Each structure stands twice: as structure tokens, then as C-alpha cells.
Amino acid sequence: NAQGEAQTHSGFVAIVGKPNVGKSTLLNSFLGTKVAPTSPRPQTTRRGVRGIFTTSTHQIVFVDTPGVHKPKDALGKYMNHEVHSALADVDAIVWVVDLRHPPTDEDSLVAHQVRDLPKPLFLVGNKTDAAKYPDEAMKLYRALLEGREADTTETMLSAQNNPNAVSVLREQILDTLPENPFFYPRGAASDQSREMWAAEIIREEAMKKLRDELPYAVATRVNRWTERDDGLQRIEGEIIVEKNAHKGMVIGAGGKQLREIGQAARKQLEVFLNHKVFLGLEVIVIPGWREDEEALRELGYE
Ligand code: GDP
Ligand code: MG
User: Fold this and answer.
1) Which of 20, 110, 272 for mutating ligand 1's site (highest number of atoms within 8 Å of CB)?
2) Where, residue-wise, is CATH 3.40.50.300 in the chain?
3) How far is the CA of 190 from the centre of ligand 2 (A)?
4) Of the candidates 189, 222, 185, 186, which has an alpha carbon nearest to the alpha carbon of residue 203?
5) What is the number of the ligand closest to the CA of 26?
6) Which pLDDT value is given to residue 87?
7) Among 51, 99, 147, 243, who pairs with 131 as Cys (CB 3.0-4.6 Å)?
């Protein structure tokens, strides 16, 4: 402008895709490792802000969207509504697919959600390092967007070990952001409380293990977080299910499944926090929490 100040560009970007395609891995690569999960702002204005990337002139606010589901109950409806409003609200969408495999029905559902949105879409074919026929797979994913008119950019990469390709993609995303003041202070990494952030990681890991048995029938929360002098982070969390029968399913024979969920979540937490983590997990029953507006609110589904 006349004063010679740099114009800032900023916007919200959703990373969508079915489970296990590498969304979290890609987000971590976008942000660089060891991103602090907490921010100077304690309030949680918006569920699912996962990370913020800021340069001198640009800011990307990455928001998570819940998975796309066939609605079966109040939570299912809430989730689809969330996906819909999350996508209506963002400035660009990153759709991640797994190039090791051809598309499934779940990919079609995601494609259906994003296809007609008049905003930049980045189709990211992930896991090129492990894909046998990446070009052929990409063609099939591209076909799911047939008829789409708005601008689409394709990238094939490995979110795990392709930092150059990830930063090129990040630049392309930056270039689509509208002129806006920054939404968050420069130093902010995320607007969730650290407890909420950790609870989301626990929930993700639980969902990965449980998705065939009880799709999205679990909620999570973190009740205590203390730090020892040597830096060890002691985190105590709960996995909430709605029936006694589900409790056993989550815990598994001899507690094996709960241990595995805990280990997977602990590893992720340690990578982010750059500290050793002790994670204590308990499974509790809140009957019918998925249909209970008050319980949903209490668990952060507002
Ligand atoms: P999300 O459920 O979509 O968030 O997926 P995650 O990021 O949790 O990744 C799911 C699995 O895929 C994990 O085991 C990752 O290590 C793995 N993964 C992610 N990106 C890549 C990649 O580029 N190459 C390979 N080979 N594996 C990947
Ligand atoms: Mg994830």
C-alpha cells in the first residue's frame, strides 16, 4: 500500500480424506516437526484447528474436518454437518489419497463433498514411496473429480520423506490465500488447549484401532496433565463409550487393545512434545452420550 507495508494474506485450509491416507503426517510436514500444540490464546474458538503456518506475509490456518460418515445418530448428523460447514468456511481444501491403492467408496464420499465447491482444491496423491502404480492410481482418483469446474492442483508425494515436494505444495497453497489480516498472532501454533489437542490424538488412535467394530462410538478427554522436573509429561485421559459391552471391546483381551491405543497415542504425543510421555488411559461408560446434547457439549462437540 501507500505506506509500503506488506499486504498480508491468510486463510483457512482443510485437510480431508479417509482415515490412514496420511493427513496427520502431511500436516506435520507442512508445519515442520516439533510443533508446540499450545498457544498464547487459551480459549478454543473453533474445534479442529490443528496448526498454523506463518511467514512474514502469509498465514495458513489448517483445520481438521471429521471423517465423512453415513449418518446413523445424532453424532453422525453432527459430524456431517461439521464436515459441511467446515468445508463451506475454508479458503482452500487439501484432499489426501493413498496411491498404494485404488479409490474406495470412502474416497468417493469425500470426492462428492469437495467436487462442487468453488474454491481451490489440492489433490494430493500420498505414499509415492510405497506405491507400485502411482500414476494409474492417481488417474482413478482424478476421475472422481470429473466435471469439477473450479481450480484443481495435483501433487504426488510422500508426506513422510519428501520435504521438498511438501514445501512446494505449501507454497502453492499460500499463493491461493486471499488478502486478509492474520487471524492468529505470529507465534501461535494452534488454538486448542493442550488437553483438547492430546484428547484428539488419543481419539484418532482409538478410532484407527476400533473403526471396524464401533465406528466413532468413542469420545476422549484429558483430565490431568502434569510435568515432572525431568520433563516427563504425565497425561491422564479417558476413553468414553456408551455401553458396558463397548468397554470390553475397547480394552480387548487382557487389555491388549487399550495398551496398543495408548502406545500409539503416546508415540505421537512424544514426537510433538519432544518429551517423554506417560499416558494413563481409562475407559468409562456414559450411557447414550451420542444422543445426549449435554454430554456432547461437555465433550467439546458444540
Ligand atoms: P491419517 O489417518 O489420514 O491422519 O493418516 P496418518 O498421517 O496417521 O498416517 C497413516 C499411516 O500412513 C501411518 O502409519 C503413517 O506412518 C503412514 N504414512 C503417512 N504418510 C506416508 C508416506 O508418505 N509413505 C508411507 N509409506 N507411509 C505413510
Ligand atoms: Mg490423522
Assistant:
1) 20
2) 9-176
3) 16
4) 222
5) 1
6) 84
7) 99
Q: Which helix (H) or strand (E) holds 273?
A: helix 256-273
pLDDT tens, residue by residue, 238-262:
999 888 888 988 999 999 999 999 9
- Give the pLDDT score at 37: 40
Nearby residues for ligand 2 (ion, Cβ within 5 Å): 23-24
Predicted local distance difference test score (pLDDT) of residue 23: 85
65 by Cβ neighbours in 10 Å (0-12 / 13-18 / 19+) ranks as buried
CATH 3.30.300.20 residue ranges of the chain are: 194-298
Homologous superfamily of 194-298 in CATH?
K homology (KH) domain (3.30.300.20)
- 97 annotated to bind ligand: no
Distance in Å, CA 219 to ligand 1 centroid: 22
**Integer Cα distance of 82 and 86 in angstroms:** 6
Locus of grid cell 480424506: 17
Please give the pLDDT value at position 3. 47
Closest CA to 73 of 223, 278, 214: 214
Q: Residue type at 62?
A: F
CATH of 9-176, picked from 3.65.10.10, 3.40.50.300, 3.40.50.720, 3.30.70.60, is 3.40.50.300
Report how far ligand 1's centroid is from the alpha carbon of 236 (Å).
Answer: 26
- The whole-angstrom separation of Cα 268 and Cα 34 is 10
Q: Is the CB of 157 under 6 A from ligand 1?
A: no
Q: Tell me, what's the pLDDT at 4?
A: 46
Q: The cell 515442520 sits on which residue?
A: 32
What is the pTM assigned to this prediction?
Answer: 0.67
64 belongs to an annotated ligand binding site: yes
Model pLDDT, residue 75: 59
- Enumerate residue ranges in the chain where pLDDT < 50: 1-4, 33-47
